[in-house]
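Purpose: get a first structural picture of the assembly so the mutagenesis plan has something to point at.
Setup: two entries, given in the order below. No constraints added.
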Amino acid sequence: MSCDLPIGVFDSGVGGLTVAKEIMSRLAGERILYFGDTARVPYGSKSKETITEYSRQIVRFLLSQGVKVIVVACNTASALAVDAVRKEFDVPILDVVNPGAQAAAQITKNGSIGVIGTEATIRSGMYSKLLYSINPDLNIYSKACPLFVPLAEEGWIYDSVTKEVARRYLEEFQGKGVDTIVLGCTHYPLLRNLIRDVVREVLGEGITLVDPAVETAKKLKQLLAGQDLFSGKEQVPEHTFYVSDGAEKFRSLANSILPCNVIETKDVTIKTFE
Amino acid sequence: MSCDLPIGVFDSGVGGLTVAKEIMSRLAGERILYFGDTARVPYGSKSKETITEYSRQIVRFLLSQGVKVIVVACNTASALAVDAVRKEFDVPILDVVNPGAQAAAQITKNGSIGVIGTEATIRSGMYSKLLYSINPDLNIYSKACPLFVPLAEEGWIYDSVTKEVARRYLEEFQGKGVDTIVLGCTHYPLLRNLIRDVVREVLGEGITLVDPAVETAKKLKQLLAGQDLFSGKEQVPEHTFYVSDGAEKFRSLANSILPCNVIETKDVTIKTFE
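Result (structure tokens, whole complex):
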């Protein structure tokens, strides 16, 4: 496995860019090859079989381009497809759910953890199952926040409407004594400041927000170190962005999220990677 | 063409059910064969080529089941794909955009029309183009309302947050003198009462809301009459519902929108209809 190969990162759309952003900030010498499945976004409402088939196609595409490791920067694909896909391919595959859950289980002092995510993520119980498997004595409280993604995409990042929506959602944790809340959706770091302030207002001081994007980037750093896969480059490299539809729209969103300048985004006919 | 065949109705998901509902209420003796492309929803963010390919597959599927007419109950597919698809198939195909635009152009007294819709619908300019082609002297003002669909799907149908969002969106029409507003998205009739009240509050009395679902059902009735295609049945028939993914979730949403009891929803592998 060549150290010079890029890190493959994929998501159903733009959400995984928050994961790419954390990787860029922690692993400045690494190239990223990003794929956003914009032709088939969102994954949240689709079945396990469909998501697994899509993930398989994307892994094949990333391998065809050459990558040294793959990060599944999508909560739905992490929960529903990674186990099956990992067995089929000979490349290290990291997901975002495991690092987030492990960090939350380590951080909590009183064992009460809140999880927020899309309706599909919460309904699947992926974080609860994983957290209980790490420590069966934890108390897990979950709340779906389906309006956070469209509010973030509307650009109402720090806004009175978004605050009111956040209040309604986060009030569900009142009286539960949670000291840790997992941002269980890759879009939510975009609303992090607002969520932090509303958590303080509604639930009080001293609650830690866990961002799985940050934890995944740390985990990736460990993995590259352990397998001696660092690129060893010093300068900021050129990243590459592929999407399955709407390259131009993706590029402008990517430029609003990422610290680097996304100059070009290429279209891929992903379904041909069957 | 047999009068006994059902009416094919398709959408990218559940939104088109508001069109199916209007057809059911105006054409009580007609069977509906509905297809929701839930595996590939939403269409709004996808390219013209992709939407046209998807629409073609769905028309092939509907024809394979036998339908006497097809209603494209999706604004995006109506705008981007219908013209191309209509030429390829020998079945009458109705869209939702033309009836909505024609009604608005007839209803307005002062020639100033507001159009609200998803970001894709507004960006495409589909309603403006059509309205200007009907009457170049009209003044058209458009406003994308991307939060209305997720708010409707969250069930916040008559809610203070939804009202505040609607105020912000509809304030864009202040000072424009619009006397007619087109609900240019198949989800919006679900918020019709709230939109009506906020229009009154923000823009004043005497503004007419045009619902393309209602206008499409009227147009369909004319078409069936003109081509002598009425089923002639008196009793309420059994409708059939197909989706490309997540049949169970669709069924429960369909039951909350439709006046009939949706007992079964079937899965179709739509991409095989290439």
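The beta strands of chain A are 7-11, 32-36, 69-72, 93-95, 112-117, 139-144, 180-183, 208-210, 240-243, 265-267.
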